[in-house]
Design goal:
heterodimer, A: 284 residues, alpha/beta, six-stranded mixed β-sheet, three-stranded antiparallel β-sheet, B: 444 residues, abc type-2 transporter like fold, five-stranded mixed β-sheet, 17 helices
Chain lengths: 284, 444
């Protein structure tokens, strides 16, 4: 669906993206995971044709560069910065954006209503955006990208700064879109979201692609072992192991079962993967 | 939002519909931006009204009446003398019909009447069924005074008639004239001839008796009705179109000048629009939609054009309450050219605006400077020579000139070519520079 080949982009002396090659498969949710400044937004910018790479190529649906306006029907973009008109109502915003896609009036009205329904904003359709909560604005921002039912959706930090309820709503929506067959590129620095949603995750840091695979394989390859923690009257012990069940059985076999107060298994996650790949935490 | 009229082909649709969507959206945003809306639509009207009323030289309460005496007889001169002593009428003698009528068209006279050749003869031939006729024209903007003027003239004619009947010499002259006419009528029935002679004798007797018992003020207006009889026929026409090339009302000056502020408001409202889109992130959404940069700019330009045109139309709408333009078609052309010229300026300013604040400051500074030199602050006529020359670089000068050309300067279509051409040229150059810069600009 989207091919990025050896992309490089510098802003002055800052190398934002360094030789990125990435292929997004049709129907998958691909996570772009990395800390702030990793180059995710620049990558998205090149992927949608807004940022011209210094070198490398971008191909959308094997038809050419997304910089070509004729190909942009295939793309839906929900930028990280809210791209809405505060003085217009939710419906007016969506109707305007639908107009940019040259939709006939009947289709436009139907799509606007359906999309407002999808993001749960129908009761507030006539209210001006300036009165919306952050979560509602995020949902409307996402809705604007869905109006023309694009086969490829690029969501840049779609849950940034929203309350847990709105976050769950957005994640549910992404799952719903995935079930409809939409290809989604999802950038985030929340590893939980990437783990919950993504078929594959691309881990980026300092403009480079460090790893790309499914979450399980990334963890297996780069996450390290699980940590089994046992707490007894005599103290706490932590053991790294590839087989935590076996380790727990061994703990229990070594002494009085009654003496073991608590046993915990800490499985490796994408945070561990990132830590092992970069030596830094995702949240640094 | 309203339904679109379906364009003919998908390609046309994809070109037009996004531009219309941008136009609607920007107009809706302007409508909801109360400050910008006020300064674009209401502030110029307030200025036009305020200065128009302050500097209005109200029409004199009396009637400024031009009189052309073509008859040059004792009776016509007496009529003029009586007019001069009539309260509320200021008589200005004019040497010729053309001079008098032109003075009305120029707004220098309220009306002009002509006492044509034969005025005296017809006045003394009442018994032969002839009614003296007064021809004239009246300023179309002073129609309300035409009734008053007609009334005064009729009143004067009745007084003269009364005087005629109380002056034995005048009656004798009139009856002698009638008797001559009787003698010349060879085929008149002898019985009727005898009866008419008796009537004329009676009139002479009545005139002599009336003279003896005349009231102390023979010119006092009669309270009796004329019973439908009119001693004078007055043919008062509305003056033809004024081609005098001078304003006839202060609104003719202040409202075209206020167009400056309307155009400035329209440009100000949209000159920071692009940079605002960038700041608010919406430009990214526009540029990821299947539209070209050109369509984005065209949408902005269309919204600015509609605003500039409507702001001018609102001004003209208020102006015509007191002062009509000379040419509606030329006025619409002038407004269109002015709007297009300033759309070009807006395109350039919007593209070179660095930030919202910086763009606003840049636009204000540029527009105020251009307006100051273009006659927005000081009327061009009051500027020193060098400033009038420098003003040619300002589109405001040409916009005001074009509007004035249609409103009161009496420009012909050919004369209109210069201001309209300059406006379109300036707009095209500015838009071309802005367009080129925008095409080269990185949007993210």
């Amino acid at each position: 669906m989207l091919e990025l080949r050896d992309l490089r982009k510098s802003f002055g002396s800052t190398l934002a993206v360094d030789g990125l090659t990435l292929s997004v498969r049709t129907g998958e949710v691909l996570g772009l995971l990395g800390p702030n400044g990793a180059g995710k937004t620049t990558t998205i910018g090149m992927a949608i044709g807004l940022v011209t790479p210094d070198s490398g190529t971008v191909s959308l649906a094997n038809r050419g560069s997304p910089a070509d306006p004729a190909l942009r029907h295939h793309l839906g973009v929900a930028p990280q910065a809210l791209a809405l008109y505060d003085d217009l109502s939710a419906e007016e915003n969506l109707s305007f954006f639908a107009g940019l896609y040259s939709m006939p009036a009947d289709l436009r009205r139907a799509r606007v209503s359906a999309t407002l329904d999808l993001v749960g904003l129908t009761p507030r359709r006539d209210d001006r955006v300036q009165g919306f909560s952050g979560g509602m604005k995020r949902r409307l921002n996402l809705a604007a990208a869905l109006l023309h039912e694009p086969p490829l959706l690029l969501l840049d930090e779609p849950t940034a700064g929203v309350d847990p309820q709105s976050r769950n709503s957005i994640l549910d929506l992404v799952r719903e879109l995935k079930s409809r067959g939409t290809t989604i590129v999802y950038t985030t620095h929340y590893m939980e979201e990437a783990q919950r949603l993504c078929d594959r995750v691309a881990i980026m840091d300092k403009g480079r692609l460090l790893a790309l695979d499914s979450v399980d394989r990334l963890i297996s390859a780069h996450g390290g072992h699980s940590v089994v923690t046992s707490i007894t009257a005599s103290g706490e012990s932590r053991v790294q192991t590839a087989d935590p069940v076996k380790e727990i059985a061994a703990i229990l076999a070594r002494g009085d079962v009654q003496a073991v107060q608590e046993v915990r298994i800490e499985r490796p996650d994408l945070e561990s993967v990132f830590l092992n790949l970069t030596g830094r935490s995702l949240r640094d | 939002m309203p339904t679109d009229a379906p364009p003919t082909s998908p390609r046309t649709r994809s070109l037009i519909v996004p531009v219309i969507a941008l136009l609607r959206k920007d107009l809706l945003l302007l409508l909801r931006d109360r400050v910008n809306f006020f300064f674009t639509f209401f502030f110029p009207i307030i200025l036009g009204l305020f200065f128009g009323l302050v500097f209005n030289n109200p029409a004199p309460p009396g009637i400024s009446l031009g009189v052309v005496d073509e008859d040059q007889t004792a009776r016509s001169q007496a009529f003029v003398t009586q007019l001069q002593s009539t309260e509320g009428i200021k008589v200005i003698l004019n040497p010729s019909r053309d001079a008098g009528f032109t003075a009305v068209r120029k707004g220098k006279l309220t009306a002009c009447i002509v006492l044509p050749k034969g005025f005296e003869a017809s006045s003394s031939s009442l018994f032969r069924g002839q009614t003296p006729t007064i021809e004239g024209v009246i300023d179309p903007s002073r129609q309300a005074t035409s009734g008053l003027l007609l009334g005064r003239l009729q009143e004067l004619a009745f007084r003269n008639l009364m005087t005629s009947f109380t002056d034995p010499a005048s009656v004798k002259s009139t009856t002698a004239d009638a008797r001559r006419a009787l003698l010349e009528s060879k085929d008149l029935d002898p019985v009727r001839r005898a009866a008419l002679n008796v009537l004329l004798n009676s009139v002479e007797t009545l005139a002599t008796d009336s003279s003896a018992n005349a009231p102390s003020n023979p010119l006092a207006p009669s309270t009796e009705s004329g019973g439908g009889f009119s001693p004078i026929k007055i043919d008062l026409q509305t003056a033809a179109k004024d081609d005098s090339k001078s304003p006839r009302h202060s609104f003719h000056i202040t409202f075209p000048s206020a167009v400056t502020w309307a155009l400035m408001g329209a440009v100000m409202a949209f000159s920071t629009s692009l940079v605002t889109e960038r700041t608010h992130g919406t430009l990214m959404r526009l540029t990821t939609a299947p539209i070209s940069k050109g369509q984005i700019l065209l949408g902005k330009a269309a919204a600015c054009f509609v605003t500039a045109f409507l702001a001018q139309a609102a001004l003209i709408g208020v102006m015509i309450i007191r002062a009509m333009p000379q040419s509606w078609p030329l006025l619409i052309i002038a407004m269109t050219c002015a709007a297009l010229g300033f759309v070009g300026l807006m395109v350039l300013l919007s593209v070179i605006s660095p930030t919202e604040g910086g763009g606003g400051g840049l636009s204000r500074a540029a527009l105020l400077l251009l307006a100051m030199f273009g006659g927005g602050s000081i009327p061009l006529a009051f500027m020193p020579g060098w400033m009038q020359t420098a003003s040619s670089a300002s589109p405001f000068k040409w916009a005001v000139l074009a509007i004035e050309g249609a409103v009161w300067r009496g420009y012909s279509p050919t004369e209109m070519l210069l201001p309209c051409g300059v406006l379109l040229g300036m707009g095209a150059v500015c838009a071309a520079i802005g367009w080129t810069l925008f095409q080269q600009r990185r949007l993210m």
